[in-house]
Amino acid sequence: MRFFSLIKLPVVLVLSGLLSACGFHLRGEYSVPEELHTMSFNSYDEYSPLTRSVHAQLELNKVDLVAPSKNIPNLYLVSAELEERTLSLYQNSRAAEKELTYVVKYRVTIPELGAKNFMTVVTRNYLDNPLTALAKSVERDVIEDEMRQQAAAQIMRQLGRVRAEYEADTAVNASKKTTL
């Protein structure tokens, strides 16, 4: 058995070296554009769990957060809403399965390019058993926390392509001007 453990370590080291050499990045690693490496961050509620999640994601992606200024890009969380919809019913007409939809609206302002509004949506389903109400309320809280984490991760992914969004809008506006 000792022979196999001696072989495993070098194999793991060689494989990890090869993966890192080819540019492979673990999931959750998003490249924020260069113009957004220093930015300000504001929210509709400075103490909400979503604000804390987005702030943690920004720090994780090595974004320097500074005070708002005219020449600094800004990320502003406009709103966050949790909507609930009944998907199925028990025989006694109580909700059996529910769908939660978490909608986050935010605005990214880049000084030379202007402001652009974005939206991210996270949807989850869960079973609602009225006989285990306490356990289901705890489960729902956990699901809502996971949805906030997913929304914050989606915001980071969308920030990674914000430059392309601005350039696409500029190209569309330019083509509209040339056709007029």
UniProtKB/TrEMBL annotation:
Pfam families, per the entry: LptE
Give the source's domain of life in one word.
Bacteria
* Main subcellular localisation: membrane
Listed A to Z, the keywords are: Cell outer membrane, Lipoprotein, Membrane, Palmitate, Signal
Spans traversing the lipid bilayer: none
Q: How does it sit in the membrane?
A: Lipid-anchor
Give the subcellular location. Answer: Cell outer membrane
Q: Which family does it belong to?
A: Belongs to the LptE lipoprotein family.
Q: Say what the protein does.
A: Together with LptD, is involved in the assembly of lipopolysaccharide (LPS) at the surface of the outer membrane. Required for the proper assembly of LptD. Binds LPS and may serve as the LPS recognition site at the outer membrane.
Matching entries from HAMAP family are given as: LPS_assembly_LptE
Give the quaternary structure: Component of the lipopolysaccharide transport and assembly complex. Interacts with LptD.
Protein name in UniProt: LPS-assembly lipoprotein LptE
Quote the gene name from the UniProt entry: lptE
